[in-house]
Amino acid sequence: MAILSLRDVSKRFGALTVAEAVSFDLAPGEALGIIGPNGAGKSTLFNLITGNLRPDKGSVSLDGRDITAETPMQRCASGIGRSFQIPQPFGHLSVYENLLVAARFGGGISAAEAPDYCMDLLRRTGLAALADRQAGGLPLLNRKRLELARAMATRPRVILLDEIAGGLTDAECGELVATIRDIHAEGTAILWIEHVLHALTAVVTRLMVLNFGRVLMIGVPDQVMAAPEVREIYLGIEA
């Protein structure tokens, strides 16, 4: 059984269709990448999965259970975690306090268990030395690390990554990808939107291409990127 399933999910804003009959399955422990041009509906799709938007049609299921009507908080408690394209930490709190909030209120972790759990996450994401640093003053790489750590603090079974490698140098990107690979190796399913293709393909085993809210193709990364329609639409190369 798929851990996450979308069936014919559609969303319109007036005359603008941002998702049209989107269907796919994410297997337990799988890493699926999502690519597409700007405005293709990628972040909208994440909002439909997390409950920040409700679809006009279709359904979202987690472990075979329909969660289409659930709130974002309920979906988080059920095991869907998310990072945002622009990191959104609680800037006035410390790095450790950011994780503690996520663990207690997003992951439902007990007050007794949460401190050790958060410190372990800080070590795994390379943030242990910055535990007491105010989150609002972190440089970009560490803000991205914190965004990943906060999502993981909710104990997700599925984690949604929204352009988490964007804006990083190649070296910084490599460090972050190594952490994501470790998380994936531990069994967490990953759905990852990314324009930095070498980062994405270092982790995912399938790619899904979105264009104008529609699924253009799903398949093995090399085959997808070699497809004429993908090269034309995504890369701007005439077929």
From TrEMBL:
A Pfam family hit: ABC_tran
MF annotations from Gene Ontology: ATP binding
Domain ABC transporter, residue spans: 4-237
Keywords noted in UniProt: ATP-binding, Nucleotide-binding, Transport
Signal sequence extent: none
Name of the protein in its database record: ABC transporter ATP-binding protein
Species: Paracoccus acridae
